UniProtKB/TrEMBL annotation:
Matches recorded under SMART domains: Elp3 (SM00729)
Organism of this sequence: Sinorhizobium garamanticum
Gene: moaA
Name of the protein in its database record: GTP 3',8-cyclase
Entry function: Catalyzes the cyclization of GTP to (8S)-3',8-cyclo-7,8-dihydroguanosine 5'-triphosphate.
Alphabetically ordered keywords of this record: 4Fe-4S, GTP-binding, Iron, Iron-sulfur, Lyase, Metal-binding, Molybdenum cofactor biosynthesis, Nucleotide-binding, S-adenosyl-L-methionine
Binding positions (S-adenosyl-L-methionine): Y46, G86, S140, M210
Presence of keyword GTP-binding: yes
Length: 349
């Protein structure tokens, strides 16, 4: 079934607006990641070019439209929703959307509302996030060295991020630190980063660099397989595999010496697709069924063509019917080009 075959007036006899989303491989989709903006106040070198061209504001969905789309997914069985970017907290009036989605938590229709942030705006928003029903967040932090932090983010100030983490914990938010493992940049300091995070009651998740979007450097220079990083860590720490999951792709180990958890996200060395329950929605209303594939569905057109959510729901169903088994991420050493042309900030981190 294609979009053109779907009646915009909801004339099909079956209303699928509340039917669960099950892909061709029997995976039930219960997790939606929403990029509310492609803009960011950092320019992390592995994620963006320094001089980015961002989407014109006229192409973005309004916050009210994003809320309607999120509500449609919640009606179809999404139980976890993560706001991402770019940097989600730089979107003007973003707390309107957070507060509206928080009502879904209080009504029992959503189990968790969370977000991934670079931490730069957390000191301003942490208390309000907690008040809206957010209980945990991910903060991206690759180094605690001030000079290296400025180098990797180009524009960022580490002190603001650390203040934001303090504010988040003071507001009662559970914080997890995400770090991209980069050979020759932060690999030597990961043990200390882990001790610091665990010492403050925060999990640490390491991520392999993902080949998405043209940037100003050769990713192969810094690509570090996490299998190698784990071997290094095991010379200092006792790591035990545990079944703990947060709904995302990370596999966790328990670190005996710190008592904390270490997550490993390995899109290249260990494909995590077999249990994928996620889809990604961009700030323009494009639905990507897979982070590492280009197939997508235009939900903006469906959203704006009718007020009937039944039609929107069937467009979503058609998209889910095309969700692939897995991604095609590779580090292309021969041609030095990304596996996916769009930047991570477009799809949502």
């Amino acid at each position: 079934m294609n979009n053109a075959a779907i009646d915009r007036n909801g004339a099909q006899p079956l209303d699928s607006s509340t039917t669960p989303m099950i892909d061709p491989f029997g995976r039930t989709i219960t997790y939606l990641r929403v990029s509310v903006t492609d803009r960011c106040d950092f320019r992390c070198s592995y994620c963006m070019a320094e001089h980015m061209t961002f989407l014109p504001k006229k192409d973005l969905l309004t916050l009210e439209e994003l809320h309607r789309l999120c509500s449609a997914f919640i009606a179809k069985g999404v139980r976890k929703l993560r706001l991402t970017g770019g940097e989600p907290l730089v979107r003007k009036n973003i707390m309107f959307l957070v507060r509206e989605l928080g009502k879904e938590i209080h009504a029992g229709r959503l189990d968790e509302l969370t977000l991934t942030t670079n931490g730069s705006q957390l000191s301003k928003f942490a208390a309000e996030l907690a008040d809206c029903g957010v209980r945990r967040i991910n903060v991206s932090l690759d180094t605690r060295d001030h000079d290296k932090f400025r180098q990797i983010t180009r524009w960022g100030e580490l002190s603001k991020v650390l203040e934001g983490i303090d504010a988040a914990q003071a507001a009662g938010l559970k914080v997890k630190i995400n770090a991209v493992a980069l050979k020759g940049f932060n690999d030597a300091e990961i043990p200390e980063l882990m001790r610091w995070a665990h010492g403050r009651g925060m999990d640490l998740t390491l991520i392999e660099t993902m080949p998405m979007g043209e940037v100003d450097e050769d990713r192969t220079d810094h690509y570090l397989p996490l299998s190698e990083m784990r071997e290094r860590l095991e010379t200092q720490f006792t790591l035990k595999d545990i079944p703990y999951r947060t709904g995302g792709p990370a596999r966790y180990v328990e670190v005996a010496e710190t008592g904390g958890r270490l997550g490993l996200i390995t899109p290249l060395t260990h494909n995590f697709c077999e249990s994928c329950n996620r889809v990604r929605l961009t700030c323009t209303g494009t639905l990507y069924m897979c982070l590492g594939q280009n197939d997508a569905a235009d939900l903006r057109a469906a959203l704006r063509s009718t007020d009937h959510d039944a039609y929107l729901s069937r467009v979503i169903d058609e998209a889910i019917s095309r969700k692939p088994k897995g991604h095609d991420f590779i580090i292309d050493r021969e041609h030095n080009r990304p596996a996916v042309a769009r930047h991570m900030s477009v799809t949502g981190g």
